[in-house]
Amino acid sequence: MEQLEARQPRKENARDALRTAGEAIGSKLGVRPVQKLPNRVKLLVSIVNAKDEVRLKEVIDECSVSLSLSFSGTGTAHSQVLDYLGIGETEKTVAFSLIPESDEETIMREIRTKISLYLVGRGISFTVPLTGISEIVDNGITSAASSKAVDGSKIMTNETRQYDLIVAAVAAGFAEEAMEAARSAGAAGGTIIHAHSLNNTKAEQFIGVSLLQEQDVLLILTKREGKLPIMQALFDKAGLKTQAGGVIFSVPVDKTAGISASDEAAATEENA
Q: Is residue 119 part of a domain?
């Protein structure tokens, strides 16, 4: 027993030396060790045909656990558009799901195949990074994947992200006008959610504009390089200084599914 205890540190030292040597060789060859990070919660946004709402939730729960909310929306893509949100003005379900980051790629892959997002008109899904969340919700979601870690090399950054989500909250009845302005600047399509503003009296005092209560929220997913022209067109046609009184902003997008044929091919190849 004493001999075993005396030899154990030598074995550990030897393993440490081998690990250090391996890392040094890998560094010279350009190979970096995989950095495993703690699990986090991310927001999954799915815009699918209304009939696919129940199946969408089933697919997500088959892969992991999620806390989801859904809204009714209307797709606005023209029939000739073969990318983004599909064909014509169709009834859509917009679902917000909180998911563990470690299950993000699996969930996206399963939604892509089981909801057939690779087909035109079936919808899209994408994930959005969060900067804060309720501790209770965070613990509940991540506990479902407590044995999993996140591959740090796959976390997207401002340098690697390719898409942004533009959100334009305009007065009811002005969504189509805003969408036409966005199309003129290169947007392929969007989704409209009918909503109403809460008591914004305090904020209105600072921005100097009264916001109408009944509003339409326009969601447009766009390539990052095309974001600024679309937002400028929205500001000019439907911004706060217009009758539409639009509040317009954008958020970064990470993983995507159902966006375009080329992106779907790349995702399939990556996950093969």
A: yes
Is residue 215 within 8 A of residue 192, CB to CB? The reply is: no
Residues 236, 179 within the same domain: yes
Range 68-86 average pLDDT: 62
Same domain, 92 and 218: no
According to the model, what pLDDT value does residue 206 have? 44
Q: Evaluate if residue 31 carries a pLDDT over 60.
A: no
Residue 115 lies in a domain: yes
Which distant-in-sequence residues (6+ apart) come within 8 Å of 103 by Cβ? 63, 64, 145, 148
Contacts of 68 (CB under 8 A, 6+ apart): 57, 60, 95, 96, 97, 98
Q: Compute the mean pLDDT over every residue in the chain, rounded to the nearest whole number.
A: 78
Contact predicate 39/148, CB 8 Å:
yes
Both tokens of residue 265?
């091919």
Question: How many structural domains are present in the chain?
Answer: 2
